[in-house]
Amino acid sequence: MKKIFSLFLSIAMLATLGIVPVTANADVATASATEAFSVQGCYGWNEYAYAKFTGSVSEVSYKKTTENNYTKVDSELIRNSEGRVDIPGLAKNTEYTIKFVGTDGTTVYYNVTTKANDRSGYAFFNHSGIGAYNEDGTLKSNADVIYVTNETKNTVTYNGITGIGNILKNASRISKPLAVRIIGTIDTQTRDADGTKTTDINNGVVAIDGLIDKVISNGKDSYFNMLDVAGSKGGLTVEGIGDDANILKWGFTFKSNCQDVEVRNLTFSKYPEDACAAEDSKYFWLHNCVFNIGENKYDLTEEQDKGEGDGATDMNGNSNVTIAYCRYNQTHKTSLNGGSDSVKSYNYTYHHNFFNGCKSRLPLTRQVNLHMYNNYYLNCGTCIDARASALVLSENQYFEGSSNCYKVTASSSEGNPAIKAVGDILTSSKYTKRDNIMNDASRDAALTTTGNKNANPSFDTNSSVFYYSNGASNVEKMNTAEQAKAECSTYAGVLEDTKADAGSINTNPDVTVSTVSTETTTEITTEVPTETTTVDDGLKHLDVSSSKTFEPADVTPDGTVDVLYFADTDEYLLQDNATNASSAWNNTFEPQKSGKLVITGKLTAGGKAGSKWAFCRVKGINAAGEANEIAAFTTDANKNLALRGINKEYVSSTTALELDKTYNYKFEFDIDNKTVTLTIDDMAPLTAAIDVSEISSVYFVTATSDTERTLTVTKPVVGVVSEGETYVYGDADNDTAVTAADSAMIMQKVLTDAPTTLETVTDKYMTYIDVDKSGVLTAADATYVLQKSLDSTFKMPCEK
Question: Which H or E element spans position 109?
Fold first, then answer.
């Protein structure tokens, strides 16, 4: 994960260290937005990019890095007053070039790579097309977009209707995909303890037109500030823009057979009733939202249990619901499945949600087949509360400091519930044991109980009603419970810098990639390496000789097996449509029998991926003197990215292989100590033991019988640690450690061109202090180094 502190933090660090920047203009360090335009950071999130800047921007546009034409960003997405621009609707796992034109004429380009939303769970079971976006994250071609701010909430017009409340209240009249983009906080008037709205009226708060706001049940209940979105079927997405989209003092109910609705990246606070509910609807996807405590000062219930609002995410009588990557903070009646014992619901999934100090209903579930997986419960009260024939598969969940993890309550009329827990971890947590709570169960144990009336007994092992395949839940990411705790803690909730990947400045934005054709191919050399060359990265690079082949070598391929080179991208495509052979590409170098060897490159797997695909293999001689695989970048039986080491044992990550995504990989071999470390992108390094006496080649391969796999790779870069003195990346003062003093020294050089200590001892100093590899020393280098000094596990761009 890439965390970047602002330029101002670097300047503050300079002051802390007693270093005062000397400039021709003393205001340079705190230049106002009118003086200079500068991009402070550009980031990629889930099918989304954004940037922060100083100064003012006149235009922002973007394109896929491999394409030629830019698309202009809507003006509503540029907030000069806040120094921010957001770009939703980008293709997942794709590199984009973003062009910024400041009002002062400055033009800057950044490259950024998006990530993907996790489209798993029942909302996507044998179904697609939810919301206003395509499965790849881009906006549907016939979709409309409307922007809503607090100032325009009652004046925005769409489909002949004015005001966001009225537009969504009449959602049944919308026949095409619609993305409603919320910018900033949208609030409304709420009631004081005396039932009036005096406080908000006096504070100038403007009520939202179209909300339902009434007393019900003969004065014993209420339905305050609710927007009923009825009958939407065209594909509706309600989404927050940026990190500050807030729904304050009101909420939604999607009802009356709404279908294909998505809600994302919104923070809900002080809602007097429900925050985001769904009723009698289907294919509902709620993800990456934050739910804070509600607030109802005028609680009319006899139980007086609405003081903190009603449900955060109540789901009543729906089918095919996924709630994912949401964060619930100290909520009370958090999530209800079924308003009474007799209400039937079907096919619910909750995954990767963080229940943080919540009191109850996590969820309270009735009459539904429910899959809960990879959620994290911290200091919660009653968690899974199953009643009235509910069947719950609780899989790889982490409970910490929670008082009642599993609860079952029978219904004399509607039947007994059951909970099956597989792979859950309970730390300082407890529950009352019951026969129909099967803790530490096997994955294929029967999920039912005596007296259960659920229409789908043992649903979780029935592929006709559940995403079940090869003895497991077929989802995009199934973490262990420990991994789920970390995943939820980091990624649940709305957009934050810590959840995004930082991009890099692009100094050559006009380079494009030509259309792939056989005319661009060139013959691949088979020359034997003869010498090494020294480069400026601390490694002595070995010459690599490449040759195309196929395997098994003793067959005649019944189709094409070839390796094509594309000069425009400097990439090699392993082409394979044979059913009896695989395409292979071998890269040999001078055998290395001792010391440390580093191999880096890029790899993109395409087509169809099976399990245990060892697409990148490092070969050599083992201790017995036999030619053998030494290590491999591969996938394991669960299709997770993995390192294969000694005896072909797997060291697996928790990240599944994503097809058509480009991975940066780095092998680091310690031949003397017989270990290897593989780093893939920003993932935690994988380390394994190896059986080795020498290493001599890198070998890429598709698949023998599968004709639907492709592999695109760069030529591997192979190097050994250079002899002589070496330096530490970011260590500007050359004391062998990266500290805040190094950040300050780099910042001082940026502002005054004062020499760093490192440049007085080596003319290759830029290799070590230009840590973002932009070719120019900037404040960004100082901030990367500062982050490294605070977090030794953080990887600067030069370390990847």
Answer: strand 107-113
pTM of the model: 0.64
pLDDT confidence band for 579 (50 / 70 / 90): confident
CA angle 306, 211, 146 (to 5 degrees): 125
Write out the DSSP string of 229-297: EE---S-EEEEEEEEEEEEES-EEEEESS-EEEEEES-EEES-SS-SEEEES-EEEEEES-EE-----S
Over residues 496-513, the pLDDT tens digits come to 999 999 999 987 776 443
Rounded CA separation 155/152 (Å): 5
**Torsion-angle region of residue 432: left (phi > 0), alpha (psi -120 to 50) or beta?**
beta
Tell me where in the chain the CATH 2.60.120.200 domain(s) lie.
539-721
Q: Which residues are CB-contacts of 744 (< 8 A; sequence separation ≥ 6)?
A: 10, 13, 14, 17, 19, 782
Structure tokens at 182: 């919320």
Please say whether the structural domain 539-721 has been given the CATH code 2.60.120.200. yes
Q: Quick one: 188 exposed, middle or buried, by C-beta within 10 A (0-12, 13-18, 19+)? A: buried
CA angle 195/252/324 to nearest 5° reads 130
Q: What are the tokens at 408?
A: 């079952």
The answer to whether the beta carbons of residues 327 and 365 sit under 8 Å apart is no
pLDDT category at 533 given cuts 50, 70, 90 is: very low
Residues 636, 639, 643, 645, Cα dihedral to 10°: 10
* Gap between the terminal Cα atoms of the chain: 12
Over residues 325-374, the pLDDT tens digits come to: 999 999 999 999 999 999 999 999 999 999 999 999 999 999 999 999 99
Task: Tell me the C-alpha distance between 324 and 410, whole Å.
Answer: 28
CA distance 754 to 765: 14
* Of the candidate ranges 249-258, 390-399, 466-475, 756-765, the one whose mean pLDDT is the lowest: 756-765
Provide CB contacts within 8 A for 591, sequence distance 6+.
620, 621, 694, 695, 696
Name the 3-class secondary structure at 49: strand
Spatial CA neighbour of 288 closest among 79, 43, 48, 641:
48
In terms of C-beta density within 10 A (0-12 exposed, 13-18 middle, 19 or more buried), how is residue 100 classed? buried
Greater pLDDT, 790 or 211: 211
